[in-house]
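Supplementary notes for students who missed Thursday's class. We covered one full example, reproduced here. Read the sequence, then the structure, then the short commentary at the end.
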Amino acid sequence: MIANEEYRQFLESVRFVYGYDFTEYAEASVIRRISAFMDSNKIASLQDLGKMILKDETEFEHFIQEITVNVTEMYRDPLFYKSLRKNVVSRLATYPFIKVWIAGCSTGEEVYSMAILFREEGLLERTVIYATDINQDALQKARDGISSISNMKTYTENYLKAGGKNSFSDYYKAKYNSVMWDKSLRQNIVFSVHNLAMDRSFNEFQLILCRNVLIYFNQSLQNKVINLFYESLCPFGFIGLGNKESLLFSEKQKYFEEVDRKEKIFMRTK
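Structure (token representation):
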């Protein structure tokens, strides 16, 4: 059992040494993942864990890889992408140059999903997709553009439900037990480390996707991140959230209107 005071001191030490701030993440979720990490690595106490990761950056990177959540798949929640095609893409097409931010991109499945969607809609050549995550190991996997072949049946089904226009197999090459996404999809993608809890806005975007990330933050950090997205969106830009996430308690709620209530797509109105 991890005591509250010990837990807070541990997080403050991590923030001081490495600049990673988990103090406003949902406490029960973080404690559960820290405990699982300690159990799997046979670490007896939080004090012992602190000694290990605060003195060894390699061990800290291993810790970050384990406790950050990397659940993702191609066209996860397919109807969300179908709604993007129907309600958002035609408006994005009016811009001469399109900037998209996928925040919390994990191992990149959502990024490649968007690249394929934009290619099919004739927009990829004038689009830059900025894909960011706190987990450097996940980002490297995203850059590599490799997925397990065992997922392709599910991914293909999702792609078709999302309104895909071609054969999904056109976008990857199978090799042994893996698939490699078409290199041309990566030409307009910029992968970079970004910490939503600590870092600021770095550009102005027409579309921001941050799906199934806010659920791991407490209310205060959720509000802070929504403010960051508001500052990062151009007027009449769009934001897409996960199906369990909302702008309801954000102080910026009044500056957004619902584009699709069920699929959690919103437009900044001013």
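Commentary. Residues 4-67 form one domain. The mean pLDDT is 93. If anything here is unclear, bring it to office hours.
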